[in-house]
């Protein structure tokens, strides 16, 4: 049955080798320079890494010439696996220009603008661990989204590599994408399964895997791994060494933390911050829960909040299967206008509490949530048929990433951001928004009135407790002839019907209101905002089936880091979660394939899972 698997692996190894070699070949090597180091440039160097004075001059001259504020400096003598890691992490074609790309590199040495280091809150200058440089380059890339690059630097010698160090770096790098750490395991399992039914091709795949480093790194590639000659042996032993090193590192870390805790000393590292935040959220939540359900929920409504009709029916009942907040919540639909809403909903204070707890764990609005650059561009381009905006306010901007991307489309536009979270203030420091306003729209509306050509609300209105008020405020904020751009989930799409409670667009209990497109356009017209565009099609976000698998997995084997579970993360919960992720991998792959194949279907008519509206304020 699986006779084709080794053949597929051969094709995959060859294709991946071509991809990785192409990425490494596109790396630049900085030329030597006799100019002194620019005083604005500082170097953050990992322990045991040697960076000569000539290398510093060359890197500084390159950064000045290319107008770069951050450079990840790559030694030419990295080990094979480290060199391949660079190629796996970084698409060298788009890294510099892609505002959404994560900050990545070799984690050996970094050149950075001193002012940028100050803004990013990085004060240490020497004695870095490679794991610390993982976080630093990721943070700096957020402050210089199009001013960051990576280059090979002659005169830079890499630190001694070992499986323990690489395991720690990998764990930190892929902390938001743990499946990447399991990829080698999936590969080895597939190799064994394929070998049991098609030994010949399995041996070919094994040999290709052993020889892949030669193909990727030999010849006209700026990196010259010091262990390339023995790379087949390295690859044979790397998997075993990596697993053993990861296990040893885990035990050492646990023992070190236990010793520090017993001595009354602080446990350093980002993981400590996450655990403290989880414990704080859990304690606060348990105290609120002890006050009874009346402290969590508002009284249930008897009528539709959109049209006032008493003719409402239950659309579905569901638990919160994203964050596992307690209780069951009811989504109701108005038979008169079709509006869907949560009834009863969480109180304002409790809803804010759950939002803050989630932000504490995932890095908050200032953290990076992988998004689609295409989506950001399409949102900005909705304005192309109309007048070029001079000033644009993005309401509910979060970390301000949309504004940062939209500058590529509208370079002369002033982009301001409004949000209740502190992430908008961080966006202002990063330069992602020109002016950052923290607070609710109602709180800041007086100072924003009549200032903007465009006001956008992307995935915002469904969270609003009073959508009508938000639309009123948007109308007052726009100048005459200005445009309001909205994007919302489409609760009438087919996916919402056949996926039931596992449709990610419900987001119970956070999405309070899901108006129909017709209801929304009518409400806009009542406020003097004439709808000029209503789009479905490409607004559809593929991934409903994949998200449904994730939600089902979350229901059966919850993420142990969630603070509102009855108790903290335990070994059993982590084991169950890891095992479930491995077992669910075929389902994820099948769901992703179906999501891709069904895109043309859902992008036809009004079948998309989201829609956008553009409305013009009449003079």
Please specify the SSE layout and strand pairing.
Layout: H1 5-25, E1 28-29, E2 41-45, E3 50-51, H2 53-66, E4 70-74, H3 80-89, E5 109-113, H4 114-119, H5 130-143, E6 148-152, E7 156-157, H6 163-173, H7 179-195, H8 199-217, H9 231-262, H10 270-290, E8 312-319, E9 328-334, E10 340-342, H11 348-362, H12 373-381, E11 391-395, H13 401-406, E12 414-419, H14 423-430, E13 435-438, H15 441-448, E14 452-458, H16 467-477, E15 478-489, H17 494-499, E16 513-514, H18 517-526, E17 529-535, H19 544-556, H20 571-597, H21 599-602, E18 610-617
Parallel strand pairs: 1-6, 4-6, 11-12, 11-14, 12-13, 14-15
Antiparallel strand pairs: 2-5, 3-7, 4-5, 8-9, 9-10, 10-16, 15-18, 17-18
3D structure, described in words:
Helix content is 46%, strand content 15%. By secondary structure, it is of the alpha/beta class. Helix 6 packs across helix 9, helix 7 (179-195) packs across helix 8 (199-217) and helix 15 packs parallel to helix 16. The longest helix is centred in the middle third of the chain and has 32 residues, at 231-262. The model is unreliable at 266-271 and 356-371 (pLDDT under 50).
The total of helices stands at 21
| CATH hierarchy class name of the largest domain | Alpha Beta
| Arithmetic mean pLDDT | 84
Radius of gyration: 26 Å
Give the CATH topology of the largest domain: Rossmann fold
Largest sheet: 7 strands, mixed
Tally of discrete structural domains: 2
């Amino acid at each position: 049955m699986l006779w084709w698997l080794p053949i597929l692996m051969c094709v995959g190894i060859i294709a991946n080798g071509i991809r990785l070699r192409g990425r490494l070949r596109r790396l630049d090597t900085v030329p030597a320079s006799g100019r002194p180091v620019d005083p604005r440039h500082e170097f953050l160097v990992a322990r045991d890494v040697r960076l000569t004075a000539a290398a510093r001059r060359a890197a500084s001259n390159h950064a000045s010439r290319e107008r770069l504020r951050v450079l990840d400096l790559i030694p030419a003598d990295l080990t094979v696996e480290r060199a391949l890691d660079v190629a796996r992490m970084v698409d060298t074609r788009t890294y510099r220009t892609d505002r959404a790309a994560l900050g990545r590199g070799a984690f050996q040495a970094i050149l950075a603008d001193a002012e940028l280091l100050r803004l990013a809150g990085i004060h240490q200058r020497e004695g870095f661990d490679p794991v610390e440089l993982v976080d630093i380059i990721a943070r700096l890339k957020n402050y210089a989204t199009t001013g960051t690059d990576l280059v090979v630097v002659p005169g830079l010698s890499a630190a001694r590599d070992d499986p323990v160090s690489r395991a720690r770096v990998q764990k930190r790098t892929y902390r938001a994408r743990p499946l990447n750490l399991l990829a080698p395991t999936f590969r080895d399992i597939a190799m064994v399964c394929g070998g049991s039914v098609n030994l010949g091709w399995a041996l070919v795949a094994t040999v290709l895997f052993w020889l892949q480093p030669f193909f990727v790194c030999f010849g006209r590639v700026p990196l010259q791994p010091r262990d390339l000659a023995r790379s087949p042996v390295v690859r044979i032993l790397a998997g075993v060494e990596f697993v053993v090193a990861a296990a040893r590192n885990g035990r050492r870390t646990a023992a070190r933390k236990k010793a520090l805790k017993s001595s009354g000393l602080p446990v350093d590292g980002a993981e400590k911050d996450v655990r403290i935040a989880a414990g704080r959220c859990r304690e606060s939540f348990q105290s609120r829960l002890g006050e009874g359900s009346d402290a969590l929920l508002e009284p249930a409504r008897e009528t539709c909040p959109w049209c006032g009709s008493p003719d409402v029916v239950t659309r579905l009942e569901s638990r919160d299967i994203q964050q596992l907040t307690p209780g069951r919540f009811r989504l109701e639909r108005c038979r008169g206008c079709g509006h869907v809403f949560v009834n009863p909903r969480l109180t304002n204070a409790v809803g804010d509490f759950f939002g803050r707890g989630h932000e504490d764990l995932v890095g908050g609005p200032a953290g990076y949530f992988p998004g689609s650059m295409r989506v950001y561009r399409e949102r900005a381009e909705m304005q192309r048929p109309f007048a070029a905006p001079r000033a644009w306010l993005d309401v509910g901007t979060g970390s301000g990433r949309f504004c940062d991307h939209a500058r590529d489309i509208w370079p002369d536009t002033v982009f301001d951001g409004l949000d209740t979270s502190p992430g908008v203030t961080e966006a202002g420091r990063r330069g992602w928004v020109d002016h950052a306003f923290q607070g609710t729209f109602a709180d800041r509306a007086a100072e924003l009135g009549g200032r903007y050509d465009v006001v956008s609300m992307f995935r915002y209105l469904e969270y609003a407790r009073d959508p009508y008020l938000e639309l009123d405020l948007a109308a007052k904020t726009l100048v005459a002839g200005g445009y309001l751009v909205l994007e919302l989930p489409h609760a009438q799409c087919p996916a919402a019907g056949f996926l039931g409670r596992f449709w990610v667009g419900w987001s119970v209990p956070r999405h309070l209101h899901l108006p129909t497109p017709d209801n929304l356009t009518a409400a806009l017209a009542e406020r003097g905002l004439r709808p000029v565009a209503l789009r479905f099609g490409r607004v559809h976000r593929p991934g409903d089936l994949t998200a449904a698998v994730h939600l089902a997995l979350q229901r059966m084997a919850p993420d142990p880091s969630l603070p509102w579970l009855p108790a903290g993360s335990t070994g059993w919960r982590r084991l169950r979660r890891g095992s479930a992720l491995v077992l669910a991998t075929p389902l994820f792959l099948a769901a992703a394939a179906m999501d891709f194949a069904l895109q043309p279907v859902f992008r036809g008519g009004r079948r998309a899972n989201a829609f956008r509206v553009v409305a013009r304020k009449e003079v």
